[in-house]
UniProtKB/TrEMBL annotation:
<keyword id="KW-0560">Oxidoreductase</keyword>
<feature type="active site" description="Proton donor">
    <location>
        <position position="58"/>
    </location>
</feature>
<feature type="region of interest" description="Disordered">
    <location>
        <begin position="1"/>
        <end position="23"/>
    </location>
</feature>
<dbReference type="InterPro" id="IPR016856">
    <property type="entry name" value="QueF_type1"/>
</dbReference>
<keyword id="KW-0963">Cytoplasm</keyword>
<dbReference type="GO" id="GO:0005737">
    <property type="term" value="C:cytoplasm"/>
</dbReference>
<comment type="similarity">
    <text>Belongs to the GTP cyclohydrolase I family. QueF type 1 subfamily.</text>
</comment>
<dbReference type="InterPro" id="IPR029500">
    <property type="entry name" value="QueF"/>
</dbReference>
<dbReference type="Pfam" id="PF14489">
    <property type="entry name" value="QueF"/>
</dbReference>
<comment type="pathway">
    <text>tRNA modification; tRNA-queuosine biosynthesis.</text>
</comment>
<feature type="binding site">
    <location>
        <begin position="73"/>
        <end position="75"/>
    </location>
    <ligand>
        <name>substrate</name>
    </ligand>
</feature>
<keyword id="KW-0671">Queuosine biosynthesis</keyword>
<keyword id="KW-0521">NADP</keyword>
<dbReference type="InterPro" id="IPR043133">
    <property type="entry name" value="GTP-CH-I_C/QueF"/>
</dbReference>
<comment type="function">
    <text>Catalyzes the NADPH-dependent reduction of 7-cyano-7-deazaguanine (preQ0) to 7-aminomethyl-7-deazaguanine (preQ1).</text>
</comment>
<feature type="compositionally biased region" description="Polar residues">
    <location>
        <begin position="1"/>
        <end position="22"/>
    </location>
</feature>
<feature type="binding site">
    <location>
        <begin position="92"/>
        <end position="93"/>
    </location>
    <ligand>
        <name>substrate</name>
    </ligand>
</feature>
Length: 153
């Protein structure tokens, strides 16, 4: 089976990093197994954004789990979208939930959850979790694999 990638504008192209999440282009491709319940996971262990107050960098380990419906997120566009947060000032909660909602708006998945495991600022790690609702019955949900804070290994 081949996938039509003619509508994709970033895959296979030299693409500069977007300057903000608002200007980043997220792309999708048809899911060849839309009739099958399964989980896809993306892990971004070096996610970076900026503190909106101090402008200092904030770091997180982001884990995105979703049960695709008719669409899959194109991974290069997701990488570029996540990279766009490097110059974006927002609180941890805003970054985490905004990423999840943007993916839901694009993909209309059967289910999605996102875990933002943020490294300490001021001595307190902030972990942020959001999901679209209960997981579909029969969906295998592995642990996100990020330890509670102890230096985050």
């Amino acid at each position: 089976m081949t996938t039509d990638t003619s509508g994709l504008h970033q895959l296979g192209q030299m693409t500069p990093a977007p300057t903000s999440p608002e200007t980043a282009v997220l792309e999708r491709v048809p899911n060849p197994h839309a009739d099958t319940l399964y989980l896809a996971r993306f892990t971004a262990p070096e996610f970076t954004s900026l503190c909106p107050v101090t402008g200092q960098p904030d770091f997180a380990h982001i884990v995105i789990d979703y049960a695709p419906g008719d669409w899959l997120v194109e991974s290069k566009s997701l990488k570029l979208y996540l990279t766009s947060f490097r110059n974006h000032g927002a609180f941890h909660e805003d970054c985490t939930v905004a990423i999840g909602k943007r993916l839901v708006d694009l993909l209309h998945p059967k289910w999605l959850r996102i875990g933002g495991y943020w490294y300490p600022r001021g001595g307190i790690p902030i972990d942020v979790f959001w999901q679209t609702g209960p997981a579909p019955e029969g969906l295998w949900l592995p642990d996100q694999g990020v330890p509670t804070y102890r230096g985050r290994g």
